[in-house]
Amino acid sequence: MRRFTYQLKTGNEKIRRIFRRRKFLEFIDSLPHQNVFWLSWYAEYVRKAGFSGFMPYSPCKNTKNRIASDAIRKITISDRVVCRDIILPVPENEDAYRFIMSLLENISTYLLEDFGPEISDTLHTAHPSPTEGSYEYTSVRLESGDILIDAGACVGEFSALAGVRGGRAYAFEPMPHVIERYLSKTAAWNPNITICRYALADKPGELIFNADPANSFGASSVNDKKKECRINVEAIDLDTFVERNKLPRVDFIKADIEGAERYMLMGAGRVLREFAPKISICTYHLPDDPEVLRDLILAANPRYVIEERWKKMYAYVPK
To answer: Which partner for 159 in 50, 81, 164, 169 could form a disulfide, CB atoms 3.0-4.6 Å apart?
Structure first.
């Protein structure tokens, strides 16, 4: 079994110990953020926890980690993340590396133009757990002039991508603190983003959202009853929103709304039937998501071609 050497600082005292791999991994598993790259990021957590001089017994040289670290250094500037024409706020109370990794993953097809194909390889293989995948895949891509429905916009990185590609984004985010801290800044820094303070559902009304007050980055939902804070949010179905705002069409729907994806689709039947937008939707929040979401899409419009990859479902109607 492979062993690791570290030093633990206690005042001026340095104690050397040998930890077996199993013990060290138990320490890693106890960390609050696990979506970090193996060597450079774990070493940083070890240092912050009071360990110094961390070095694997046999040093590991991982080219993919180095490429990803270089990409992070390229795009991080003070309190903002800048990648080409997109400018995003770095979360206040979240690990910046974790956020940037999520950013690189979510819009990796755009960032490939800057960092090369190695980044895609890194993002899809270097995670301790399976990746969620990019919001773009095969024929499901944002194109110039697209009208985007961004359900669960959060910071608004995908809305910003639509904006810089010459499209119009309707960024749906019901959580006031997320809008105030992040999405409003993204909308101010990037063109063509309209903030929509609604939860997308199967019908208009009011919903009780369960939110974690310690999580300034969102991840709130109707389904999670364990959250400590509950707030009332206004809900609307997509068909009503499109009719009320006289949208000429919908070209792309991106949805990551913590298990409410099925209700969003229930309220978007006319949009799917008349406009046949490209769809990129998360499938990991509820165990039966893949089957339920597929059935809802095909019931609204049987012409859809559906592909599943990673933890997402991609749907489009061939032209």
So the answer is: 169
Sorted by where each begins, the domain ranges of the chain are: 3-56, 128-316
pLDDT tens, the chain, 319 aa long: 333 343 433 333 333 343 434 444 455 455 444 333 334 444 444 445 444 443 333 333 344 455 555 655 666 666 677 777 788 887 776 556 567 667 767 876 666 555 545 444 544 444 433 467 789 988 999 999 999 999 999 999 999 999 999 999 999 999 998 899 899 999 999 989 999 999 999 999 999 887 765 555 555 555 555 556 788 999 999 999 999 999 999 999 999 998 999 999 999 999 999 999 999 999 999 999 999 999 999 999 999 999 998 889 999 999 8
Determine how β-strand 252-255 pairs with β-strand 86-89: unpaired
Per-residue burial over 175-195, b = 16 or more CB atoms within 10 Å of its CB, e = otherwise = bebbbebbbbbbbebbebbeb
